[in-house]
Amino acid sequence: MELGPGAFHLPHYLSIEWQAALLAQCRALADGDVPAYVPVVRGGGRMHVRMLCLGRHWNAKTYQYEAARADFDGLAAPALPDDFRRLATAIAASVGMAIDPDLCILNYYDAEGRMGLHQDKDEGPASIAAGIPVVSVSLGDTARFLFGGLKRREPIEAIQLESGDAFVFGGPARLRYHGVSRITPHTAPTELGITGRFNLTFRQYDI
Ligand code: SIN
Ligand code: MN
After folding, report:
1. Which of 12, 29, 77, 200 could cross-link to 57 by cystine, CB 3.0-4.6 Å?
2. How remote is the CA of residue 201 from the centroid of ligand 1, in Å?
3. Residue ranges of the alpha helices (H) in 34-171?
4. How far is the CA of 116 from the centre of ligand 2 (A)?
5. What is the C-alpha separation between 3 and 8, in angstroms, rounded?
6. Over the stretch 138-176, which tens digit does the pLDDT of each residue have?
7. Ligand 1 atom 2 nearest Cα
8. Separation of first and last alpha carbons in the chain
9. Cα-to-centroid distance, 155 and ligand 2 (Å)
10. Whole-angstrom Cα distance, residue 176 to residue 187?
11. Rounded to the nearest whole angstrom, what is the distance from the C-alpha of residue 180 to the centroid of ligand 1?
12. Ligand 1 pocket by C-beta < 6 Å: which residues?
């Protein structure tokens, strides 16, 4: 389902078995030796997600990528698992785009979780200029995903991202504004046994 040049919503991309396996990996990572945490951004506000960056860390104070979490505990970002990388590459390929991701931001949203409208523009300038996509995968409760234009004031569309859905924005859509306005509790597939939502966004910093 194309939402405009370079932007694709792929409902039910992952089978329920695949979702369960990926969810187990996400949980183990989020509660692992380098745990997910609630970042505090440069204005001093706490984000409304728990975040864990894999492959490269996004510093919430500087909005720059780095190897270790200087804005939190100084621990090195865990490696990006190979099967995560392959998943993102396959999703992008299914809509005719190419990515060899070197990082993933894993976010956990509880019932109050949300994310304000923003652009993903902290990756390498060559990567952004080339339109290498951001690839997103959702697990758990449904999110109301906001998808706007290249300027903050352009019209915004609301899309329900359900468990197992993928979303890709690259090429001319790479810098479109987006966010999450709400999570709808109790909408996750019961088989998954999850409260809340994980979202993975894969990006390629270096090209
Ligand atoms: C993000 O923009 O980084 C997250 C998007 C989402 O949770 O769907
Ligand atoms: Mn984003």
Report:
1. 77
2. 7
3. 82-94, 125-129
4. 9
5. 6
6. 999 999 999 999 999 999 999 999 999 999 999 999 999
7. 179
8. 27
9. 17
10. 27
11. 7
12. 105, 107, 115, 136, 143, 145, 161, 178, 180, 199, 201
Q: Which atom of ligand 1 is nearest to the CA of 107?
A: 7
- Integer Cα distance of 34 and 54 in angstroms: 10
Q: Which two tokens stand for residue 142?
A: 């449904």
Provide the residue-wise pLDDT of the chain in tens; the chain has 207 residues. 899 999 999 999 999 999 999 999 999 999 999 999 999 999 999 999 999 999 999 999 999 999 999 999 999 999 999 999 999 999 999 999 999 999 999 999 999 999 999 999 999 999 999 999 999 999 999 999 999 999 999 999 999 999 999 999 999 999 999 999 999 999 999 999 999 999 999 999 999
- Using most ligand atoms within 8 A of CB, pick from 48, 115, 141, 176 the residue to mutate for ligand 1: 115
Task: Measure 120 CA to ligand 2 centroid, in angstroms.
Answer: 5
